[in-house]
């Protein structure tokens, strides 16, 4: 005979059975959520790498081939249930903007969560990548002072620079996509004498010339620079313009002072160009001579990257997909500019020149070769990771290779 007590126990068991289902379901949800998180991480990695791979091949493959390769790559980087569930990704290819977008999703079967009515968990991933390289303008502002003749530094600098130029050449996929300028500097810079009639130049510098007669009496006179005697050297502009770059030069204080050459063999500036032979020749022509004025190197590196005078080759900063870079390299402390031999005063001008470049939108790399003001160069760099220091000239080539690849490599854009 069934008693009241046994009926009550039966009811409790039934009620417990109903109650335990959601508890088990919620426990299962935690487990399934963890599984879904792991699958999402795997899917993210697969989609990211497939987007990059597709971007690298987009220039040489058709849209159909790119899509097939991306789908194959995603599936190959999945495993287990994720691989079996994957069919294809949604792939967008914009050949005008040079952008590939990859979206993929997977429905992961649940386990205990089924008890509360959820049979699957959907995970999604999206990645976007560009192919080729952005349009790049790069200034090489390179110390050509006398100290670069020691410890094989100039030889190593030439080799590293030529290697960088080759990397950038190999990365180029369209005419003028990558343009480079070379700015050798000492206490001055040098430009082509064919620019002597340019309105941004002024000819008012002088040098002292002294003669001693047979009685030992010395007579000194100030000789002015003229267009006919000028050999291309330019000194610092009047302050505060010595740390700026003006797209429009008009007033007297903004003009660039043509000067007598303190370093007669200083190599001339090569403005922005994609003429790889001209770039090679410019690097090979560099000769170490004279004292150090890092400010004028930074200022003229910036000048080659800024549209308008003194060089018209640079594109506007607002040009879509354009990146501007400067590599500023030196092996010594500031020792002399047009105004002083006080190193700390020149350092302050260098700091301002670097800041002007960075504010304009130029990404600045700095390289200290064995010697030089570490703090000054670290602060000149756009980011701490963009400062390099080498203790041996032989380390310049791998440093320049790293910078070149960083500038030209394909990157994920979101």
UniProtKB/TrEMBL annotation:
Keyword list, A-Z: Membrane, Transmembrane, Transmembrane helix
Transmembrane segments: 12-31
Gene3D superfamilies, A to Z: von Willebrand factor, type A domain (3.40.50.410)
SUPFAM superfamilies linked: vWA-like
InterPro entries, per the entry: Tad_N, VWF_A, vWFA_dom_sf
Name of protein: VWFA domain-containing protein
Stretches assigned to the VWFA domain: 137-403
Superkingdom in the source lineage: Bacteria
UniProt organism field: Bosea vaviloviae
A Pfam family matched in the record: VWA
PROSITE patterns: VWFA (PS50234)
């Amino acid at each position: 005979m069934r008693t009241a007590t046994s009926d009550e126990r039966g009811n409790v068991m039934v009620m417990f059975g109903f109650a335990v289902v959601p508890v088990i379901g919620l426990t299962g949800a935690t487990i399934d959520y963890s599984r879904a998180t792991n699958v999402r991480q795997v899917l993210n990695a697969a989609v990211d790498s497939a987007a990059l791979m597709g971007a690298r091949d987009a220039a040489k493959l058709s849209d159909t081939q790119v899509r097939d390769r991306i789908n194959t790559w995603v599936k190959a980087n999945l495993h287990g249930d994720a691989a079996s569930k994957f069919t294809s990704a949604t792939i967008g290819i914009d050949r005008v903007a040079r952008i590939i977008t990859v979206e993929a999703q997977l429905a992961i079967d649940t386990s205990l969560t089924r008890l509360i009515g959820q049979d699957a968990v959907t995970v999604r991933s999206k990645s976007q990548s560009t192919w080729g390289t952005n349009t790049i303008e790069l200034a090489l502002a390179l110390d050509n002072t006398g100290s670069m003749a020691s410890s094989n530094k100039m030889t190593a600098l030439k080799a590293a620079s030529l290697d960088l130029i080759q990397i950038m050449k190999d990365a180029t996929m369209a005419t003028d996509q990558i343009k480079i300028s070379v700015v050798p500097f000492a206490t001055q810079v040098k430009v082509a004498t064919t620019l002597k009639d340019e309105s941004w130049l002024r000819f008012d510098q002088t040098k002292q010339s002294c003669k001693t007669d047979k009685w030992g009496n010395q007579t000194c006179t100030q000789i002015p620079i003229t267009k006919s005697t000028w050999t291309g050297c330019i000194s610092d502009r009047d302050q505060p313009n010595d740390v700026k770059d003006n797209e429009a030069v008009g007033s007297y204080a903004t003009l660039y002072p043509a000067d007598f050459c303190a370093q007669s063999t200083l190599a001339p500036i090569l403005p922005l160009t994609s003429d790889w032979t001209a770039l090679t020749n410019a690097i090979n022509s560099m000769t170490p001579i004279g004292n150090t004025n890092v400010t004028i190197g930074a200022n003229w590196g910036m000048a080659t990257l800024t549209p308008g005078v003194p060089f018209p080759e640079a594109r506007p900063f607002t040009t879509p997909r354009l990146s501007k870079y400067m590599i500023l390299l030196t092996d010594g402390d500031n020792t002399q500019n047009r105004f002083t031999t006080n190193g700390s005063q020149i350092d302050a001008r260098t700091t301002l020149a670097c800041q002007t470049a960075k504010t304009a939108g130029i990404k600045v790399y700095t390289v200290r070769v064995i010697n030089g003001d570490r703090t000054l160069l670290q602060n000149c760099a756009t980011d701490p990771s963009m400062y390099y220091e080498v203790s041996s000239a032989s380390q310049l080539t791998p440093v320049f290779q790293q910078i070149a690849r960083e500038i030209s490599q394909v990157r994920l854009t979101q």
